Amino acid sequence: MEQPLVSVIMPAYNAEQHIAQSIESVISQSYANWELLITDDRSTDSTQAIVKAYAVNDPRIKLFINADNGGAGIARNNSIKKAKGRYIAFLDADDQWLPEKLTTQISFMLKNDYAFTFTAYQKIEGNEKKGIVIPPESTSYKKLLSSNVIGCLTAVYDAEKLGKKYMPLIRKRQDMGLWLEILKEIPKAQSISTVLGLYRVDSGMTQNKLAILKWQWLFYRETVRLNLIESIYHFFIYSIKGLFKHLT
């Protein structure tokens, strides 16, 4: 299989508990032609030291440090700016990929000439595996507004086809903002129903469901700039689907 360079985008902030596992999951990929671009958002723990130790032994791993703490979106954008790969993939510092993730997904994109894809993933809490999230076969701009079915750790876009696309400069929901920007240009994002990633649900904002709803409402009103009726409509559907996802 042809192996175009894949740039893996990882933001990090006080991620010492899990980042080694995340980095190891990239190193363990059966697909070898990748670069891992980690932008640290001014961590105060040992995150930077952990990354530096890996970077010394593997030149594909590169560490950048933000001048100020600006949030995950700014950290991701810095890594995207530095990226040299045809494909841009995302992995947060507390999530993991399964070994065949890149081989399976890049092959799928090359074979079908897809510009933007995502996959199924499994939730993890501590060391325990939880529910599996199987996405729909595809999603569009309109569908995504009501339900962000694209797990950030599973998303890959083709920068050769789309150009480099960056996260909006907002504190939360940057990933959904980026997916919507891409879907303004192409009809659909296509999915793979195979589980290729592990998504941690016991860290960060994932734990605070009320905060998630607050930021989702603000996202509709201030970022996407929907009118009040449209915002209420999509927020209601999003909340119902989010509840169902949480229970699975």
Your description of this structure?
This protein is α/β, with parallel strands linked by helices and 248 residues long. It has one domain: Alpha-Beta Complex (Spore Coat Polysaccharide Biosynthesis Protein SpsA, Chain A), CATH 3.90.550.10. Helices cover 40% and strands 23% of the residues. Strands 1, 2, 3, 4, 5, 6, 7, 8, 9 and 10 form a ten-stranded mixed β-sheet that branches. The longest helix has 20 residues, at 228-247. The termini are far apart. The mean pLDDT is 90.
Main features:
single chain; 248 residues; alpha/beta; Spore Coat Polysaccharide Biosynthesis Protein SpsA, Chain A; 10 strands
Summarize the structure.
The protein has 248 residues and is α/β, with parallel strands linked by helices.
Supply the number of structural domains.
1
- Report, as a whole number of angstroms, the end-to-end distance: 36 Å
Treating each run of at least 4 consecutive H or I residues as one helix, how many helices?
Answer: 9
Strand content: 15-25%
Oligomeric category = single chain
Order of helices and strands: EHEHEHEEHEEEHEHHEHH
Write the layout of secondary structure elements.
Elements: E1 6-12, H1 19-27, E2 34-40, H2 47-57, E3 61-65, H3 72-82, E4 87-90, E5 96-97, H4 101-112, E6 116-125, E7 128-133, E8 138-139, H5 141-146, E9 156-158, H6 159-162, H7 174-183, E10 189-200, H8 209-223, H9 228-247
